[in-house]
Amino acid sequence: MMPVDICIVCHNGKKGFRSCWPGLKECNSCGYCMADMDVQNLNLREIYSDEYFSGDEYVDYLRDRPTFEKQFRARLHEMKRFQPSGNLLEIGCAYGFFLAVAQLDYRAYGFDIAEGPVTYARGELGVDARCEDFLDVPLEPDSVDVVAMWDTIEHLPRPDLTIGKVGRVLKPGGFLFLTTGDIGSLIARVKREKWRLFHPPTHLHYFSRSTIARLLETAGLRVVKTRYVGVRRSVRQVAYSLLVLGKEHSSWLYDSIADSAIGDFSFVLNTYDIMLVVGQKR
Ligand SMILES: [Zn+2]
């Protein structure tokens, strides 16, 4: 394992990191930011137990399925403009909502380390989801047309290893699609440790447009598109974030919204701090 004081983006071990704000450190050489903790020794299977998807970060992931599907159909539409068919591998497929949409156009399969969600994805949605760590799976080099990583890279212990492997398994000309927060965005720089996407130990890595491009470059991928994307959220999820998350007391307002039909209503909100990055293998 690489010592934690060596940067995973520029591999500079001499200049070290400086503290950005409480809990976040930044590489003095390239500006890449990571959670100020022992990232290599976290128990990820414990963090991503079933509670993660129902109450910790997401209020009720399964109930919000129609919301996620709408969002994923829009992403798929964009993806097909780059690569209309072929095989698609998703890293961090969770409950398989994206695979279910993607398998209509691609031979789609995915990996996730969270057992409960993968069991659901296979059993309920009939998608090809596998409870394995992508890094442990033997895959043919130059064999994949499209890799998708939705809101996943920030959770990984070693994004450099994952992106490196993506670079190897993609076919020349194949595409990687990912989304992640932008630490260089206005809202992140203003809100700092109160930025809603800053929450170690689930979010460990905080990329900017330049540091994510550099990481992809190292793996032989050229960034062909970066843009800010809106995120579709149900009223239930938004109310949960505003009224419950991080609060000590329960909220009667949240309880009444969550159980009403209003809770199912969804809308797209673009706060210009989540990047969609498309990389193409050279
Ligand atoms: Zn660096």
Description:
The protein has 282 residues and is α/β, with parallel strands linked by helices. Helices cover 29% and strands 25% of the residues. It contains 9 helices and 13 strands. The strands form 3 sheets. It has a 7-stranded mixed sheet with strand order 6-5-4-7-8-13-10. A 4-stranded antiparallel sheet has the order 1-2-3-9, with no helix packed on it. A two-stranded antiparallel sheet has the order 11-12. Helix 8 packs antiparallel against helix 9 (252-258). The longest helix has 18 residues, at 65-82. It is globular. The two termini are 28 Å apart. The relative contact order is 0.15. Zinc ion (ZN) is lined by residues 7, 9-10, 12, 27, 29-30, 32.
Major sheet description: 7 strands, mixed
- End-to-end separation: 28 Å
Give the C-alpha Rg. 18 Å
Shape from CA axes? Answer: globular
* Largest sheet strand order: 6-5-4-7-8-13-10
- Average pLDDT level: 91
Q: Work out the helicity level.
A: 25-40%
Number of contiguous helices: 9
Helix-strand category: alpha/beta
List the helices and strands and how they pair.
Blueprint: E1 17-21, E2 24-27, E3 33-35, H1 44-47, H2 65-82, E4 87-91, H3 97-102, E5 107-111, H4 115-125, E6 128-130, E7 144-150, H5 159-169, E8 170-181, H6 186-191, E9 205-206, H7 209-218, E10 221-228, E11 231-234, H8 235-243, H9 252-258, E12 266-269, E13 274-281
Parallel strand pairs: 4-5, 4-7, 5-6, 7-8
Antiparallel strand pairs: 1-2, 2-3, 3-9, 8-13, 10-13, 11-12
Helix pairs in contact: 8-9
Zinc ion binds next to loops.
